[in-house]
Write a structure and sequence with these properties.
The complex is a heterodimer of chains A (about 350) and B (about 220). Chain A is about 35% helix and about 30% strand. The chains are: A alpha/beta (about 350), B mainly alpha (about 220).
Chain lengths: ~350, ~220
């Protein structure tokens, strides 16, 4: 559906050039809800803006349905944009137009007929559940309602792709959740491919089937959300995704110098063996549970357990080897969160 | 007491014609200055770096022209444009003739007001319109102007009030109006009461214009 290849974006400024995007490669399939997560300044906003060319890429190609949109001229670009809806962190509604007129705006630009616009607006208000706010102005709406209007507006021209630029970052947790549900249902019922950038992990966890992690202008990891979250491979991803509550401080352990800490990740409830019991019994070591957490990613779960092992070096090694043979992921950890 | 009423009566009787002339000059020049100043202001705003119709050279030229036009003292401008006035109106002095310098003085002022009003619009709203595939023309007429309307309205109110002041100066060179009345009867004719009366009328006029302007602004604000 969307294939980004070798994408670069360089800003030329007075104090030298800044590379906002460096060799970005992404494949977004039809009907994905594709999340791009990164810290502020990582380049995610530039990346999503390149997809509808609100930012001009410096190099590379973005192929949407067999067309390289980087090569389009102004007219073709405008036509292409009408197939890509976009919503924003600050909603960007026209302040002097009511809901109905805001939603009708893209249709008027495309010169739809009046009767058709009326029909389409009513249908969209129904989709976003705002029928009673048809004549309300943005200043009379809550943040969540404004984002619903923005979603309706973005969907007005029946686009195949919806870009979400930090669409829930200005909303409270409950409203975020309801907007995400709406996006998910739009994805399922209308078959729209959604690309969203966010710095909120919860957003990715809740709705994205795929995720890419961006750091310093490069994609450092991408894949199914469940895989990336349960088995992060890049150190930055790990630090980003993992809960700090699973970081163990020296002060929290009795004899830190002689204790080895390991993180065990259980995938999809596959922990049928009583592992902790077995390592204590078979390897003659002490195993102390230091922290634990269950995570749910759209119905699939994984658990993290941080265990402190105390015993002779050989026995600890054997125990770890044993654990690694099981259907769990074992990582040896240092204090304060970094892994070996 | 009777003397006072007599005086008020006498002064009031002098007012209708000059008041009409002032209103005529002010509203005609407001109308023309908005017609010419508005496109100038819009083009200046959107040709700025990073805006929807970036054109650095044009932007620079427009800025220089507007600044030059704004630096003329009105009294000098009025005399300087005499030849142009003669071409447009057929004569150099008179109420209708005064509309030419008044308009020319107000155009750059209006242009700046409109430019600022346009530049105040959040870039996000423009970006949203771009993302929907709107072209420059559609953004100007469907986004920028409607969104800037409240600021434009308060800018025009300011322009009208400025023009009331300028029109009094036009009176000094035969433009008629309340300024003329105050100078000819009041100042040169030593009729203090006429001068005071004129000032009171001007104060009321400005109050009414500002009051109406504020109401329009609030109506436009949604």
């Amino acid at each position: 559906m969307i294939s980004i290849e070798g994408l670069y974006k360089t800003y030329t400024g007075k104090e030298g050039n800044t590379e906002a995007l460096k060799d970005v490669n992404l494949r977004i399939e039809k009907e994905d809800i594709f999340g791009i997560i990164g810290l502020s300044g990582a380049g995610k906003s530039t990346l999503i803006r390149c997809i509808n060319r609100l930012e001009e890429p410096t190099k590379g190609s973005i192929i949407i349905e067999d067309k390289d949109i980087v090569k389009l001229n102004d007219n073709e670009l405008r036509d292409m944009r009408r197939n890509i809806g976009m919503i924003f962190q600050h909603f960007n509604l026209l302040s002097r137009k009511n809901c109905k007129e805001n939603i009708a705006f893209p249709l008027k630009i495309m010169k739809y007929e009046k009767r058709e616009i009326e029909k389409r607006v009513d249908k969209l208000l129904e989709i976003v559940d705002l029928k009673d706010k048809k004549l309300a102005y943005p200043s009379q709406l809550s943040g969540g309602q404004k984002q619903r209007v923005a979603i309706a507006r973005a969907l007005a021209t029946k686009p195949k792709i919806l870009l979400c630029d930090e669409a829930t970052s200005a909303l409270d947790p409950n409203t975020t959740s309801s907007i995400l549900k709406l996006l998910k249902s739009i994805n399922e019922t209308l078959g729209i491919t959604i690309v969203m950038i966010t710095h909120q992990m919860e957003v990715i966890k809740e709705v994205c089937n795929k995720v890419a992690v961006i750091s310093d202008g490069s994609i450092i990891e991408q894949g199914n959300t469940y895989d990336v979250f349960s088995k992060p491979s890049h150190p930055i991803t790990k630090s980003f995704i993992r809960d700090v509550s699973l970081n163990i401080d020296k002060d929290n352990v009795d004899d830190p110098e002689n204790t080895k800490i390991v993180r065990i990740t259980f995938l999809d409830h596959k922990a049928k063996e009583p592992l902790i019991y077995k390592i204590i019994k078979n390897f003659d070591i002490e195993a102390n549970i230091l922290a634990g957490q269950m995570n749910n990613i759209q119905g699939r779960t994984y658990g993290n357990l941080v265990v402190g092992l105390k015993g002779t070096d050989d026995k600890i090694k054997d125990a770890i080897r044993y654990l690694k043979e099981q259907s769990v992921i074992v990582e040896e950890m240092k204090y304060n969160g970094s892994s070996n | 007491m009777e003397v006072l009423i007599e005086t008020i009566k006498r002064v009031m009787l002098l007012m209708p014609m000059p008041l009409y002339e002032t209103l005529y000059m002010v509203f005609a020049s407001t109308l023309f200055s908005v017609i010419f100043g508005m496109p100038l202001g819009i083009v200046t705003a959107i040709s700025e770096e990073g805006h929807i119709w970036e054109n650095k050279v044009l932007n620079k030229v427009l800025n220089v022209v507007i600044n030059i036009a704004r630096s003329f003292p009105f009294i000098i401008l009025m005399i300087a444009v005499f030849p142009l006035t003669k071409i447009i109106v057929g004569k150099r002095i008179g109420t209708t003739a005064a509309i030419v310098p008044l308009t020319i003085a107000a155009i750059p002022f209006v242009a700046r007001l409109i430019e600022n009003a346009i530049k105040e619009i959040s870039p996000g709203i423009i970006e949203a319109a771009l993302s929907m595939g709107a072209d420059v023309k559609q953004i100007v007429f469907r986004v920028l102007i409607p969104e800037a309307l409240p600021s434009i309205a308060s800018g025009i109110t300011m322009t009208i009030i400025n023009l009331v002041g300028y029109s009094a100066m036009a009176g000094a060179i035969g433009g008629g109006g309340l300024g003329n009345l105050a100078i000819r009867f009041g100042y040169q004719g030593f009729q203090k009461d006429v001068m005071i009366g004129t000032v009171i009328v001007l104060i009321l006029m400005v109050q009414i214009i500002q009051g109406l302007g504020s109401r329009v602004y609030n109506k436009l604000l949604k």
